[in-house]
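User: Here's a chain of 238 residues. Predict its fold as tokens.
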Amino acid sequence: MKRILLGTAALALSASVVSAEVVRMGTEGAYPPYNFINDAGHVDGFDIAVGNELCKRAALTCEWATNEWDSIIPNLVSGNYDTIMAGMSITAERDAVIDFTQNYFPPDPSVFVGLSDNIDLPHAVIAAQTGTIQAAHVAETGATLVEFATPDETVAAVRNGEVDAVLADKAFLAPIVDEDSELMMIGPDVFLGEGMGVGVRESDTELKEKLNAAIQSMKDDGSLNELIEKWLPGAATF
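Assistant: Prediction complete.
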């Protein structure tokens, strides 16, 4: 599960979004299978499927907006949208800036991918997307971290020899490895983060409570596990 906020953003005062006509759902739209733009030009993926069901159960009118990853938290705080559902892991660093619902996806593995399995990872040059929990993990290992704005750029850096390997969510990298015979997974799975939650402003307690209740109802009736199995086959369930 992705991602750690680099830097901090000042919290803005905002009225409760629950009283608004529309709840704006922020996502990246560039990290399949969690979120992406489909052939029809619409946001799609696991985050969107879960988010739409949460809005239905919470009796909220919701619409989706896309935002680049590196500014997705500051734009939530400043009021450009009301939630983040973008494959975002719950971390202490993020929780100091925004608030989270309970997780709607349990901790899932990350994995290293490169052109060879004979790579000394602690001393290698590793790509990761900027502001992710994977980038933070690489920095902590002592390896040389090279950050990129998008997940696709991290994979391209491996292919063109700019870096030795990339670290990202296994669910993102596995289909890429399956389609490219030159790429391979390296070493054991790496578990990071506390699972994915819906990010909300700290002032939006009523919205958080509504979403928490909807997430719990999906856990209780098994529908959340059904969506996990549909979009992320083989991943951990609740």
